[in-house]
Design goal:
Layout (H helix, E strand, L loop, with lengths): L2 E4 L3 H10 L9 E2 L8 E7 L5 E7 L4 H14 L7
Parallel strand pairs: 1-4
Antiparallel strand pairs: 2-3, 3-4
Length: 82
């Protein structure tokens, strides 16, 4: 479980939070192809250890997303198969 916050610029948000002492699990993840093309995200923890995420959607190709989601839904494992 975690909570995500959409931000307009994940790099800028990371820099601002880092300056305040926030430690991130990694550098921001960047995807520029496939179903998640245009997404950037990074994880960190709140003071109680709850995972939090910053998400930026830099661009969005709606048709590619529709195709990718349809493919995932058609091919994902069914509970009966697990």
């Amino acid at each position: 479980m975690h909570m995500a916050f959409q931000v307009p610029d994940v790099e800028k948000a990371c820099a601002e939070l880092s300056a305040k002492g926030v430690k991130f699990y990694s550098a921001p993840n960047v995807v520029d192809e496939g179903v998640l093309s245009g997404w950037r995200w990074v994880y960190f923890e709140d003071p109680d250890g709850i995972p939090l995420e910053l998400v930026e959607v830099a661009h969005y190709n709606q048709e590619d997303r529709k195709v990718g989601i349809a493919d995932y839904l058609a091919n994902r494992p069914k509970l009966a198969d697990l």
